[in-house]
Amino acid sequence: MTNYRPTWAEVSLEALKQNVKAFKDYISQDCQLMGVVKADAYGHGLIPCATSMIDSGANRLGVAIIEEAIELRKAGINVPILIFGYTPREAVQEAVNHDLTLTVFTDEIMEEVIRAAEEKEKSVNIHIKVDSGMHRIGLKKGEDVLQLLEKNGSPYVHVEGIFTHFSDADNEDPDYTERQFHHFLSVVEEVENVHGKIPITHCCNSAATITFPSMHMDMVRVGISLYGLYPGEHMREWISLQQVMSLKTKPIMIKMVYPGEPISYGRSYEPERPIEVATVPIGYGDGLPRALSNKGHVVINEQKCPIVGKVCMDQTMIDVSSVEESNRDAVYTFFGEPGEGNISLKEVADQLQTIHYEITCQIGQRVPRKNI
Ligand SMILES: *Cc1c(COP(=O)(O)O)cnc(C)c1O
Protein backbone atom coordinates (compact mmCIF):
# COMPACT_ATOMS: atom_id res chain seq x y z
CA MET A 1 0.00 0.00 0.00
CA THR A 2 1.20 3.46 -0.79
CA ASN A 3 1.56 5.69 2.23
CA TYR A 4 0.68 9.28 1.52
CA ARG A 5 0.77 10.62 5.04
CA PRO A 6 4.11 12.05 6.17
CA THR A 7 4.29 9.93 9.34
CA TRP A 8 6.62 6.99 9.63
CA ALA A 9 8.72 4.86 11.96
CA GLU A 10 12.28 4.70 10.74
CA VAL A 11 13.88 1.33 11.40
CA SER A 12 17.63 1.30 10.98
CA LEU A 13 18.46 -2.23 9.87
CA GLU A 14 22.09 -1.08 9.88
CA ALA A 15 21.87 -0.33 13.59
CA LEU A 16 20.12 -3.67 14.13
CA LYS A 17 22.93 -5.50 12.35
CA GLN A 18 25.55 -3.63 14.38
CA ASN A 19 23.75 -4.65 17.56
CA VAL A 20 23.66 -8.31 16.45
CA LYS A 21 27.41 -8.15 15.79
CA ALA A 22 28.02 -6.51 19.16
CA PHE A 23 26.29 -9.47 20.84
CA LYS A 24 28.09 -12.02 18.65
CA ASP A 25 31.37 -10.49 19.85
CA TYR A 26 30.10 -10.38 23.42
CA ILE A 27 29.21 -14.07 23.74
CA SER A 28 31.63 -16.96 23.29
CA GLN A 29 31.96 -18.71 19.95
CA ASP A 30 30.22 -21.88 21.06
CA CYS A 31 27.21 -19.99 22.40
CA GLN A 32 24.34 -19.51 19.98
CA LEU A 33 22.48 -16.22 19.54
CA MET A 34 18.70 -16.40 19.28
CA GLY A 35 17.13 -13.18 17.98
CA VAL A 36 13.75 -12.60 19.60
CA VAL A 37 11.22 -11.23 17.10
CA LYS A 38 7.89 -11.67 18.89
CA ALA A 39 5.21 -8.97 18.63
CA ASP A 40 6.26 -7.91 15.12
CA ALA A 41 9.89 -7.67 16.24
CA TYR A 42 8.88 -5.47 19.19
CA GLY A 43 7.02 -3.28 16.70
CA HIS A 44 10.01 -2.91 14.35
CA GLY A 45 8.65 -5.13 11.55
CA LEU A 46 8.93 -8.93 11.66
CA ILE A 47 10.36 -10.03 8.33
CA PRO A 48 12.96 -7.30 7.64
CA CYS A 49 14.26 -7.56 11.21
CA ALA A 50 14.36 -11.35 11.21
CA THR A 51 16.19 -11.38 7.88
CA SER A 52 18.71 -8.75 9.02
CA MET A 53 19.38 -10.65 12.23
CA ILE A 54 20.09 -13.87 10.37
CA ASP A 55 22.25 -12.07 7.78
CA SER A 56 24.35 -10.57 10.54
CA GLY A 57 24.88 -13.78 12.47
CA ALA A 58 21.88 -14.73 14.61
CA ASN A 59 21.62 -18.53 14.67
CA ARG A 60 17.96 -18.89 15.54
CA LEU A 61 14.77 -16.95 16.12
CA GLY A 62 12.36 -16.87 19.03
CA VAL A 63 8.67 -15.90 18.93
CA ALA A 64 5.80 -15.95 21.40
CA ILE A 65 3.06 -17.61 19.37
CA ILE A 66 2.74 -20.00 16.43
CA GLU A 67 1.16 -17.36 14.16
CA GLU A 68 4.41 -15.39 14.25
CA ALA A 69 6.47 -18.46 13.44
CA ILE A 70 4.28 -19.40 10.47
CA GLU A 71 4.65 -15.88 9.08
CA LEU A 72 8.43 -16.32 9.22
CA ARG A 73 8.25 -19.68 7.45
CA LYS A 74 5.97 -18.24 4.77
CA ALA A 75 8.60 -15.57 4.12
CA GLY A 76 11.06 -18.38 3.41
CA ILE A 77 13.03 -18.14 6.66
CA ASN A 78 14.38 -21.59 7.45
CA VAL A 79 16.48 -21.23 10.61
CA PRO A 80 15.17 -23.00 13.74
CA ILE A 81 12.32 -21.05 15.36
CA LEU A 82 11.36 -21.61 18.99
CA ILE A 83 7.83 -20.76 20.12
CA PHE A 84 8.26 -19.60 23.73
CA GLY A 85 4.66 -19.70 24.86
CA TYR A 86 1.66 -21.96 24.89
CA THR A 87 0.69 -23.70 21.68
CA PRO A 88 -2.93 -24.87 21.71
CA ARG A 89 -3.58 -28.55 20.98
CA GLU A 90 -5.23 -27.81 17.64
CA ALA A 91 -2.18 -25.88 16.43
CA VAL A 92 0.45 -28.51 17.22
CA GLN A 93 0.12 -30.37 13.90
CA GLU A 94 0.73 -27.10 12.02
CA ALA A 95 3.82 -26.48 14.13
CA VAL A 96 5.17 -29.91 13.25
CA ASN A 97 4.37 -29.41 9.56
CA HIS A 98 6.30 -26.12 9.54
CA ASP A 99 9.33 -27.52 11.40
CA LEU A 100 8.79 -25.26 14.39
CA THR A 101 10.32 -25.94 17.79
CA LEU A 102 7.75 -26.18 20.54
CA THR A 103 8.04 -25.32 24.20
CA VAL A 104 6.62 -28.14 26.29
CA PHE A 105 5.55 -27.86 29.93
CA THR A 106 2.33 -29.88 30.21
CA ASP A 107 1.33 -33.49 29.55
CA GLU A 108 -1.32 -32.22 27.16
CA ILE A 109 1.17 -30.54 24.82
CA MET A 110 3.63 -33.43 25.13
CA GLU A 111 0.97 -35.97 24.13
CA GLU A 112 -0.20 -33.88 21.21
CA VAL A 113 3.36 -33.34 19.93
CA ILE A 114 3.98 -37.08 20.01
CA ARG A 115 0.69 -37.78 18.22
CA ALA A 116 1.32 -35.16 15.53
CA ALA A 117 4.91 -36.27 14.89
CA GLU A 118 3.97 -39.95 14.73
CA GLU A 119 1.07 -39.29 12.39
CA LYS A 120 3.28 -37.49 9.87
CA GLU A 121 6.33 -39.64 10.69
CA LYS A 122 8.12 -36.33 10.95
CA SER A 123 10.82 -35.31 13.43
CA VAL A 124 10.09 -32.47 15.80
CA ASN A 125 12.32 -30.66 18.30
CA ILE A 126 10.99 -29.62 21.65
CA HIS A 127 12.40 -27.47 24.46
CA ILE A 128 11.27 -28.08 28.03
CA LYS A 129 10.36 -25.00 30.06
CA VAL A 130 11.45 -24.81 33.67
CA ASP A 131 9.91 -22.34 36.12
CA SER A 132 12.85 -21.21 38.23
CA GLY A 133 11.09 -18.34 39.94
CA MET A 134 9.05 -16.23 37.54
CA HIS A 135 5.94 -18.34 38.23
CA ARG A 136 4.49 -17.86 34.78
CA ILE A 137 4.83 -21.07 32.74
CA GLY A 138 7.10 -24.05 33.23
CA LEU A 139 7.74 -27.00 35.51
CA LYS A 140 9.27 -26.29 38.88
CA LYS A 141 11.15 -29.48 39.66
CA GLY A 142 13.48 -31.96 38.03
CA GLU A 143 11.13 -34.81 38.91
CA ASP A 144 8.25 -33.02 37.13
CA VAL A 145 10.40 -32.75 33.99
CA LEU A 146 11.43 -36.42 34.22
CA GLN A 147 7.81 -37.49 34.60
CA LEU A 148 6.94 -35.52 31.47
CA LEU A 149 9.86 -36.99 29.52
CA GLU A 150 8.84 -40.53 30.50
CA LYS A 151 5.82 -40.10 28.27
CA ASN A 152 8.03 -39.74 25.24
CA GLY A 153 8.89 -43.06 23.66
CA SER A 154 8.67 -41.63 20.15
CA PRO A 155 11.72 -41.69 17.89
CA TYR A 156 10.31 -38.56 16.20
CA VAL A 157 10.27 -36.29 19.24
CA HIS A 158 13.69 -34.91 20.20
CA VAL A 159 14.35 -33.05 23.41
CA GLU A 160 16.69 -30.49 21.90
CA GLY A 161 16.60 -27.96 24.69
CA ILE A 162 15.67 -27.04 28.23
CA PHE A 163 15.27 -23.47 29.39
CA THR A 164 14.06 -21.01 31.96
CA HIS A 165 13.31 -17.29 32.04
CA PHE A 166 14.49 -14.66 34.55
CA SER A 167 12.06 -12.25 36.14
CA ASP A 168 14.50 -9.78 37.69
CA ALA A 169 17.68 -9.78 35.60
CA ASP A 170 17.57 -6.00 35.11
CA ASN A 171 17.94 -5.49 38.85
CA GLU A 172 21.38 -4.23 39.87
CA ASP A 173 21.17 -6.62 42.80
CA PRO A 174 22.01 -10.02 41.27
CA ASP A 175 20.64 -12.08 44.16
CA TYR A 176 17.30 -13.25 42.75
CA THR A 177 18.74 -13.99 39.28
CA GLU A 178 21.53 -16.03 40.86
CA ARG A 179 18.97 -18.00 42.84
CA GLN A 180 16.92 -18.64 39.70
CA PHE A 181 20.07 -19.70 37.82
CA HIS A 182 21.11 -22.16 40.51
CA HIS A 183 17.65 -23.61 40.68
CA PHE A 184 17.71 -24.09 36.90
CA LEU A 185 21.18 -25.69 37.03
CA SER A 186 20.01 -28.18 39.64
CA VAL A 187 16.95 -29.10 37.57
CA VAL A 188 19.11 -29.58 34.45
CA GLU A 189 21.53 -31.76 36.39
CA GLU A 190 18.77 -33.92 37.84
CA VAL A 191 17.16 -34.36 34.43
CA GLU A 192 20.39 -35.08 32.56
CA ASN A 193 21.43 -37.68 35.14
CA VAL A 194 18.49 -39.81 34.08
CA HIS A 195 17.69 -38.67 30.57
CA GLY A 196 21.21 -37.98 29.28
CA LYS A 197 22.65 -34.75 27.94
CA ILE A 198 20.25 -32.17 26.50
CA PRO A 199 22.02 -30.30 23.68
CA ILE A 200 20.85 -26.71 24.30
CA THR A 201 20.42 -25.28 27.79
CA HIS A 202 19.47 -21.59 27.91
CA CYS A 203 18.23 -18.95 30.30
CA CYS A 204 19.46 -15.44 29.38
CA ASN A 205 17.28 -12.62 28.07
CA SER A 206 18.93 -9.29 27.11
CA ALA A 207 19.48 -8.14 30.68
CA ALA A 208 21.07 -11.40 31.79
CA THR A 209 23.10 -11.73 28.59
CA ILE A 210 24.62 -8.31 29.23
CA THR A 211 25.25 -8.52 32.95
CA PHE A 212 25.74 -12.24 33.66
CA PRO A 213 28.22 -13.65 31.11
CA SER A 214 28.69 -16.71 33.35
CA MET A 215 25.07 -17.69 32.72
CA HIS A 216 25.13 -17.74 28.92
CA MET A 217 25.24 -21.58 28.72
CA ASP A 218 24.61 -22.93 25.16
CA MET A 219 22.46 -20.08 23.86
CA VAL A 220 21.19 -16.59 24.74
CA ARG A 221 17.77 -15.21 23.76
CA VAL A 222 18.17 -11.52 23.05
CA GLY A 223 15.18 -9.32 22.22
CA ILE A 224 15.03 -5.70 23.35
CA SER A 225 18.77 -5.03 23.18
CA LEU A 226 19.04 -6.10 19.54
CA TYR A 227 16.74 -3.12 18.95
CA GLY A 228 19.35 -0.99 20.71
CA LEU A 229 17.57 -0.58 24.03
CA TYR A 230 19.02 -1.30 27.47
CA PRO A 231 16.84 -3.03 30.07
CA GLY A 232 18.70 -1.00 32.72
CA GLU A 233 20.87 2.11 32.58
CA HIS A 234 23.74 0.41 34.41
CA MET A 235 24.16 -1.86 31.37
CA ARG A 236 25.40 0.94 29.11
CA GLU A 237 28.99 0.47 30.25
CA TRP A 238 28.95 -3.24 29.33
CA ILE A 239 28.01 -3.06 25.66
CA SER A 240 27.51 -0.30 23.12
CA LEU A 241 24.20 -0.39 21.20
CA GLN A 242 22.35 1.89 18.80
CA GLN A 243 18.63 2.60 19.03
CA VAL A 244 16.97 1.10 15.95
CA MET A 245 13.60 2.88 15.82
CA SER A 246 12.77 6.57 15.39
CA LEU A 247 9.23 7.97 15.13
CA LYS A 248 8.92 10.83 12.68
CA THR A 249 6.35 13.11 11.11
CA LYS A 250 5.99 16.43 9.30
CA PRO A 251 3.61 19.32 9.95
CA ILE A 252 0.49 19.67 7.81
CA MET A 253 -0.47 23.15 9.05
CA ILE A 254 1.29 25.87 11.04
CA LYS A 255 -0.59 28.84 12.48
CA MET A 256 -0.57 31.45 15.24
CA VAL A 257 -2.69 30.73 18.29
CA TYR A 258 -3.41 33.57 20.71
CA PRO A 259 -4.28 33.87 24.41
CA GLY A 260 -7.97 33.01 24.80
CA GLU A 261 -7.74 30.29 22.13
CA PRO A 262 -7.57 26.86 23.78
CA ILE A 263 -5.93 24.00 21.90
CA SER A 264 -7.43 20.54 21.28
CA TYR A 265 -10.12 18.52 23.10
CA GLY A 266 -11.04 19.52 26.60
CA ARG A 267 -9.30 22.93 26.26
CA SER A 268 -6.47 21.68 28.47
CA TYR A 269 -3.93 24.14 27.03
CA GLU A 270 -4.29 27.82 26.39
CA PRO A 271 -1.33 29.95 25.35
CA GLU A 272 -0.25 32.80 27.63
CA ARG A 273 1.21 34.69 24.70
CA PRO A 274 0.84 34.30 20.93
CA ILE A 275 2.50 31.04 19.85
CA GLU A 276 3.21 29.33 16.57
CA VAL A 277 1.46 25.93 16.53
CA ALA A 278 2.17 23.08 14.12
CA THR A 279 -0.35 20.30 13.63
CA VAL A 280 1.18 16.90 12.87
CA PRO A 281 -0.73 13.93 11.36
CA ILE A 282 -0.19 11.36 14.11
CA GLY A 283 -2.17 10.51 17.22
CA TYR A 284 -3.05 7.82 19.70
CA GLY A 285 -4.66 5.90 16.82
CA ASP A 286 -1.08 5.36 15.69
CA GLY A 287 0.16 4.36 19.11
CA LEU A 288 1.46 7.80 20.09
CA PRO A 289 0.56 7.61 23.80
CA ARG A 290 -2.23 10.01 24.75
CA ALA A 291 -0.49 10.32 28.11
CA LEU A 292 2.06 12.52 26.32
CA SER A 293 -0.58 15.28 26.09
CA ASN A 294 0.92 18.53 27.47
CA LYS A 295 3.93 16.46 28.53
CA GLY A 296 5.86 15.03 25.58
CA HIS A 297 8.13 16.74 23.08
CA VAL A 298 9.39 16.44 19.55
CA VAL A 299 12.83 17.40 18.29
CA ILE A 300 13.08 19.63 15.22
CA ASN A 301 16.64 20.18 14.02
CA GLU A 302 17.96 19.32 17.50
CA GLN A 303 15.52 21.72 19.13
CA LYS A 304 13.00 20.40 21.65
CA CYS A 305 9.37 21.56 21.25
CA PRO A 306 6.44 20.68 23.52
CA ILE A 307 3.20 18.91 22.66
CA VAL A 308 0.39 21.34 23.49
CA GLY A 309 -3.13 20.18 24.33
CA LYS A 310 -4.45 16.64 24.18
CA VAL A 311 -3.06 14.15 21.68
CA CYS A 312 -6.03 13.35 19.37
CA MET A 313 -6.64 10.05 17.60
CA ASP A 314 -5.06 11.20 14.34
CA GLN A 315 -3.48 14.59 15.02
CA THR A 316 -1.32 16.34 17.58
CA MET A 317 -0.32 19.96 18.10
CA ILE A 318 3.21 21.19 18.79
CA ASP A 319 4.39 24.61 19.98
CA VAL A 320 7.12 25.44 17.48
CA SER A 321 7.56 29.11 18.46
CA SER A 322 11.17 28.52 19.50
CA VAL A 323 12.10 27.15 16.07
CA GLU A 324 13.33 29.47 13.36
CA GLU A 325 10.66 30.00 10.73
CA SER A 326 12.65 28.39 7.93
CA ASN A 327 12.99 25.16 9.99
CA ARG A 328 9.37 24.76 11.00
CA ASP A 329 8.44 22.45 8.15
CA ALA A 330 11.39 20.13 8.82
CA VAL A 331 11.09 16.56 10.15
CA TYR A 332 9.66 16.29 13.69
CA THR A 333 11.07 13.38 15.71
CA PHE A 334 9.16 12.06 18.73
CA PHE A 335 11.96 9.67 19.63
CA GLY A 336 15.16 8.61 17.95
CA GLU A 337 18.83 7.87 18.44
CA PRO A 338 19.93 10.08 21.37
CA GLY A 339 23.41 10.36 19.86
CA GLU A 340 21.81 12.45 17.11
CA GLY A 341 20.21 14.89 19.52
CA ASN A 342 16.88 13.08 19.72
CA ILE A 343 14.77 12.16 22.71
CA SER A 344 15.53 8.52 23.53
CA LEU A 345 12.87 5.87 23.96
CA LYS A 346 14.08 5.46 27.52
CA GLU A 347 13.30 9.13 28.22
CA VAL A 348 9.78 8.79 26.79
CA ALA A 349 9.21 5.59 28.77
CA ASP A 350 10.34 7.26 32.00
CA GLN A 351 8.00 10.16 31.36
CA LEU A 352 5.10 7.73 31.01
CA GLN A 353 6.22 5.50 33.89
CA THR A 354 6.45 2.49 31.65
CA ILE A 355 9.18 0.59 29.78
CA HIS A 356 10.45 1.24 26.24
CA TYR A 357 9.33 -2.27 25.22
CA GLU A 358 5.73 -1.12 25.49
CA ILE A 359 6.20 2.03 23.43
CA THR A 360 7.72 0.38 20.33
CA CYS A 361 5.22 -2.51 20.51
CA GLN A 362 2.33 -0.04 20.54
CA ILE A 363 3.26 1.86 17.38
CA GLY A 364 0.34 0.79 15.21
CA GLN A 365 0.16 -0.87 11.82
CA ARG A 366 -1.10 2.42 10.36
CA VAL A 367 2.44 3.79 10.71
CA PRO A 368 4.64 2.50 7.89
CA ARG A 369 8.05 1.11 8.89
CA LYS A 370 10.68 2.71 6.73
CA ASN A 371 13.79 0.57 6.66
CA ILE A 372 17.00 2.51 6.30
C1 LIG B 1 10.65 -11.98 25.36
C2 LIG B 1 11.51 -13.08 25.79
C3 LIG B 1 12.90 -12.99 25.70
C4 LIG B 1 13.61 -11.72 25.30
O1 LIG B 1 13.57 -10.80 26.35
P1 LIG B 1 14.31 -9.37 26.22
O2 LIG B 1 14.20 -8.78 27.58
O3 LIG B 1 13.54 -8.61 25.21
O4 LIG B 1 15.68 -9.66 25.79
C5 LIG B 1 13.64 -14.11 26.02
N1 LIG B 1 13.04 -15.24 26.42
C6 LIG B 1 11.71 -15.37 26.54
C7 LIG B 1 11.12 -16.64 27.01
C8 LIG B 1 10.89 -14.29 26.24
O5 LIG B 1 9.57 -14.40 26.37
TrEMBL record:
Catalytic activity, reaction form: L-alanine = D-alanine
GO CC entries: cytosol
Protein name: Alanine racemase
Function: Catalyzes the interconversion of L-alanine and D-alanine. May also act on other amino acids.
Enzyme nomenclature, EC number: 5.1.1.1
Pathway: Amino-acid biosynthesis; D-alanine biosynthesis; D-alanine from L-alanine: step 1/1
CDD domains in alphabetical order: PLPDE_III_AR
Active site: 38 (proton acceptor), 265 (proton acceptor)
Swiss-Prot/TrEMBL cofactor(s): pyridoxal 5'-phosphate
GO biological process: D-alanine biosynthetic process; peptidoglycan biosynthetic process
PANTHER family per UniProt: ALANINE RACEMASE (PTHR30511), ALANINE RACEMASE, CATABOLIC-RELATED (PTHR30511:SF0)
Presence of the UniProt keyword Disulfide bond in the record: no
GO MF, any single term: alanine racemase activity
Domain of life: Bacteria
Residues the entry annotates as binding substrate: 136, 313
Residue span, Alanine racemase C-terminal domain: 244-372
Residues annotated as signal peptide: none
Residues recorded with modification N6-(pyridoxal phosphate)lysine: 38
